[in-house]
Amino acid sequence: MKPFQSEKHISASETAQMLGISETSVKNWVRHGFIETAVNDKDNCFLEDDVISLRSRILSGDLKRLNSRANKSNSLKTFMPEELFETEEEKRSVSEISSFIMRHNVDVSSAMFFLSLNLLQRKGMLEGTSPEEILYSQDINIKKRKRLSETLLSWRDSLTAEVKPEFFEILKVRIPDHSNITGIIYQSILIEGDKSKLGMYYTPDKVVSEIIGRIASPDNTFLDPCCGTGQFLLAFSDITDNPENIYGIDIDPIAVNVAKINLFMKYSNADFNPKIFYADSLLDFNESILMDDMNRFSEFDCIATNPPWGSHFNKKELKYLKNYYPEILSGESFSYFLVKSLRMLKTGGVLSFVLPESILNVKIHSDIRKYIFNNYHISRIEQKKKIFKNVFSTAAVIDICNIESTEDVEIVNICDSYKIDNERFGRNSNFIFDINVDSADEKILGKVYSCPYLTLKENAIWALGVVTGNNSKYIQEEKNQWNEPVIKGKDVSSFRISDPDTFIKFEPHKFQQTADVSFYRSKEKLIYKYISNRLIFAYDKEQRITLNSANILIPQISGVDIKVIMALFNSELYQYIFQKKFSSVKVLRSHLEELPVPQLKEEQYNYILKLVKEIEAGSSIDDLNEYVYKIFKLKKSEIVHVKSRVK
Ligand SMILES: C[S@@+](CC[C@H](N)C(=O)[O-])C[C@H]1O[C@@H](n2cnc3c(N)ncnc32)[C@H](O)[C@@H]1O
Known about the structure:
Helix 1 (12-19) packs across helix 2 and helix 13 (231-237) runs parallel beside helix 14. Among the domains are: 9-72, Multidrug-efflux Transporter Regulator, Chain: A, Domain 2; 454-645, Alpha-Beta Complex (Adenine-n6-DNA-methyltransferase TaqI, Chain A, domain 2), CATH 3.90.220. The chain has 28 helices and 23 strands. By secondary structure, it is α/β, with parallel strands linked by helices. It is elongated and about 95 Å long. The strands form six sheets. Strands 5-4-3-6-7-9-8-10-11 form a nine-stranded mixed beta sheet, with helices on both faces. A four-stranded antiparallel beta sheet has the order 13-22-19-20, with helices on one face. The longest helix has 16 residues, at 88-103.
């Protein structure tokens, strides 16, 4: 039984065991911000309490998506990549073609090969030969297309599956008109497990063309270091006449072949050798493939991609990676791709990556933030709503220039855009890219924290709610003579606890985790909602038990009444401070320990207590909000700003 919120540290393997997942999944969960490591730059150390709490939330069904994420790498399911379709008609056709391929067990590479032949034939690019000849003859001689002939020959020779009559049906199907249609069909027939292992989630056209439109010029050299079937390469080909300037690399040989055919079709009148290479960009990548005719190593004007997020590497790979990329401690694939690509960027060049939002503020990614901040110039960060339907994380698109500059960073949020001082990232702990804080916010937060204050760090008792380990067994919906009400997060609102509709027979020894009983039975305590993007605190003097969606705080700052803390933390200004500083959907003890508890005169404390009494009797919170603004001497315009930002 866990007594109360402790500082006990446990290892990654113990964490994996407690959560019933692999150590790799633990690392992935850290990268995505589902759980935090306890010590900076050390990815094998966790707070036992955090792990217990996460486990209970998964068991209680609170985090179904996280649970299924753990199993995704083994999934045999296929998914239609909804985000890639432009019309319903396109989706329907792709669904029919994919179903045909799967129903007839056509192996994936053959299916892509036959689809490519279909498209080339329709475009009149197989002049002088036929699909049958391409399949069976020693030599392929497409008229005026030596390079295309060579590519098809080498792809054909790599196919291992025996050709069946159904394969020829693929030559006849009508394929929707889209420059990367083979890639979209490929995404629809790939099983989820394989996609997840290599991070093979292709980027929707709209996002790709926005990026290329913003950062690339027609005479640039362009690289996508993990190009898939060539989404970014195709978008760049829209603005340049010169296919020789387009470079791509991918570890997936099928995708590389599809990308090459896509480019051949795009420049249908040219006979050229697409510079798209089948290689591991991070490990066995032979730099000589990127040498130019003069044997000079190519550097690029422009690099853009959506790299794999959270790829799995084995021990041997990790050893090499740590050696090649000593800057990166996290083992995260997108960070390796960033370092590798930035090293290949020309002076004055620009790079744009689609990344999970966790790169901005999760502690374990401070390595790559520091590397970028210290060596390059971040010119723009855009927050994107969920781009990928079947991927949990939201995304951020980061543009980085290989120049020295002190220019501000352009921030594009879901609802507005503004500029912020680049240097601030360097002053933040863990190099956090706190893009939600604009210059007006920075001023207001500075003002708040310039008043004399204490914090709850070492000035409070913290306790977690009960984790029963089996809610259906221990929680009842009816009151009886043995049980008592138990408070859940959803019962807690600002200043109020609604009558709980669940009951528990409090037998701590049977539960997976409880705090020391004295904390629940304390004469008075604050109860706060754990999963919330707002601070929601209520007062309890009925010694009630809570479940772990509602945690317990007993402030111990001498001279400051417990209800004053409740009032401050519930006020509008504190919602703003919390949201700006942490942009979190979890209210963590570490967050609360950073909030200021201003040092006030007795009459000010008393006035707050009077306002609390009125609120408890049914008055609105408005007067309290105004009074808290007054305490921190905020001006009218600043208050208007705060109000406009609080969610
Ligand atoms: C998220 S997809 C992006 C594909 C394409 N750039 C796009 O944005 O649509 C990631 C790609 O990285 C490739 N990949 C994964 N690990 C790689 C590696 N070590 N070297 C090269 N490519 C890799 C995968 O095969 C996949 O095509």
